Amino acid sequence: MTRIDFYTDVAALYPFACRAARTVYRKGERMLIVLPDEAALRGFSAQLWAYGDTEFIPHCAASDVLAAETPVLLATDFAVAAEGLVLLNLSPAFPDSPQRFPRILEVVGTDDASKAVARQRYRRYLDSGFEIHHHNMSDARHD
Predict the structure, then answer these.
(1) pLDDT score for 83
(2) Cα–Cα distance list, 120 to 17, 64, 94, 100 (Å)
(3) Which CATH number does the domain housing residue 66 bear?
(4) How far apart are CA 30 and CA 59, in angstroms?
(5) Are 34 and 101 in contact (CB under 8 A)?
(6) Domain range holding 23?
């Protein structure tokens, strides 16, 4: 069954997501990161390129010709063939057919609007029978 992890009260979403991508990449797994729009996708891609002084997290848009060979894919929707991909959801949307992902990471900011939308996704996962693992990041250093 798909493992769902909710990381809440994340003050710096993109740096946190970059670390998550690095962790998944280092484990030899592939990841799909879904962002709310094209501007967010471009901004996050720039952060991945600049992440760390001596590190490189290979990534591209899910629509790129190199997507099948690239460990980290960026998209604005869930239409990507997700076989074996870890999903990191930075969008407000609920994923289509969440059971097709072995693991889903939901990252939630500190603002009330993000929390309200995340609560709706949380409830949908519960209503669909998924077990959810919650991680409150308010006391964690994640910059």
Answers:
(1) 78
(2) 21, 32, 9, 20
(3) 3.40.50.10110
(4) 10
(5) no
(6) 3-136
Q: How many domains does the chain have?
A: 1
Helix (H) or strand (E) holding 121: helix 112-127
Q: Across the 143 residues of the chain, what is the mean pLDDT of every consecutive 10-residue run? A: 96 93 95 96 91 83 93 93 89 94 96 96 97 90 51
Q: So what's the pLDDT on residue 95? A: 94
Q: What angle do CA 24, 25, 27 make, to 5 degrees?
A: 65
Q: Is 62 exposed, middle or buried (0-12, 13-18, 19+ CB in 10 A)?
A: buried
> Helices 13-26 and 38-50 meet at what angle, rounded to 10?
60
Position 53 scores a pLDDT of: 73
